[in-house]
Amino acid sequence: MKYATPAYAVAFLLLLAAPFFVYPVLLMKVLCFALFACAFNLLLGYTGLLSFGHAAFFGAAAYVAGHALKVWELPALAGILLGAGASALLGWAFGSLAIRRQGIYFAMITLALAQMMYFFFLQAPFTGGEDGLQGVSRGSLFGLVDLEKDINLYYFVLAIAVFGFWLIHRTIHSPFGQILKAIRENEPRAISLGYDVARYKLLAFVLSAGLAGLAGATKMLVFQFAALTDAHWHMSGEVVLMTILGGMGTVFGPVVGSAVIVTLETELADKVGSLVTVIMGAIFVICVLLFRRGIVGELLALRKRT
Question: Is residue 282 within a helix (H) or strand (E), and if so which, with residue range?
């Protein structure tokens, strides 16, 4: 922990300067997916719950926030918070059902519920169906900052990502986070110690869903549309890949994993087309076979050995 504060400070300074050297929209996409992966890691890496339905929260927040901004003409921040709140509420509904089961059964229940939401978004009139919800205005922040400008929007997105990262960091280093780790390591022992395990797992699920929704709503604001791809099961698989590649159960792992995946997809999309999914699959297989702790996990293990 003694190296944590300087590392965070350096990372924050680099992020402040980044849009002057790298395309801001790419950076904002990385930040949104980094927050999404960190939210998922809270559930998988620290609670031991593998959800295959997190795209439902990511996509639901995008649609709710987009509708709020386009139809109700709410301010950008209000729309994003409304989207995150809707995802947290949806997470409570999903979690109340899913936490009744464990392991692969938990994963399959979350996948099934997410697919139900996907087909709801496909048929619902306010989502635009296959065309998606397009033409959403970015608006302004408190009527003072024009978010239509990429550079202004970047710092707004950075502030949201930093807040989300701080909340996750605070959670995993709190007594609540320690109980989540105890549940991950040995759930029967946590029950024997008197902890209401179901309640803690549900709280973790709701918090993870709300933060995933915050990421989805922010991504919608960046690209000014919400699409079915945000709620597809491929998106759930992609966030699993980001988390495992970076290192689940580590603070920085999902950030690194999301940066690698988003950058690769962006750079390779025009060069190899649909083969991007094959390359991502190959990366996942190599990661599982050769460095199961992920990039950051392996680096931390190497530092401990030296």
Answer: helix 276-290
CA distance 54 to 295: 23
Quote the CA–CA distance of 29 and 104 in Å, as a whole number. 31
List the one residue out of 121, 94, 135, 138 whose CA is nearest residue 229: 121
| Burial state string for 292-304 with b = 16 or more CB within 10 A and e = fewer than 16 | ebbbbbbbbeeee
| One-letter amino acid of 203 | L
As given in the structure block, the two tokens for residue 270 are 């025009």
Note the pLDDT tens digit of each residue in 242-293: 998 888 888 888 999 899 888 888 877 777 766 777 887 787 788 777 777 8
- Both tokens assigned to 142: 């408190």
Place of tokens 């609670």: 47
Task: Measure the CA–CA gap between 306 and 292, rounded to whole angstroms.
Answer: 20
Residue ranges, the chain, pLDDT below 70: 1-5, 273-274
137's CB contacts (< 8 A; 6+ apart) are 69, 70, 148, 224
CA angle 296, 301, 302 (to 5 degrees): 95
How many residues are given for the chain?
Answer: 306
Q: Are 212 and 61 in contact (CB under 8 A)?
A: yes
Residue 193 gets which letter from DSSP?
A: T
Q: What digits encode the pLDDT tens for the residues 2-30?
A: 455 677 788 888 888 888 888 899 999 99
Rounded to two decimals, the pTM is 0.93
**How far apart (Å, rounded) are the C-alpha atoms in residues 156 and 253?**
23
- Cα-Cα-Cα-Cα dihedral of 95, 210, 7, 21, to 10°? 130
Distance CA 259, CA 300 (A): 18
Residues in Cβ contact with 20 at an 8 Å cutoff, skipping those fewer than 6 apart: none
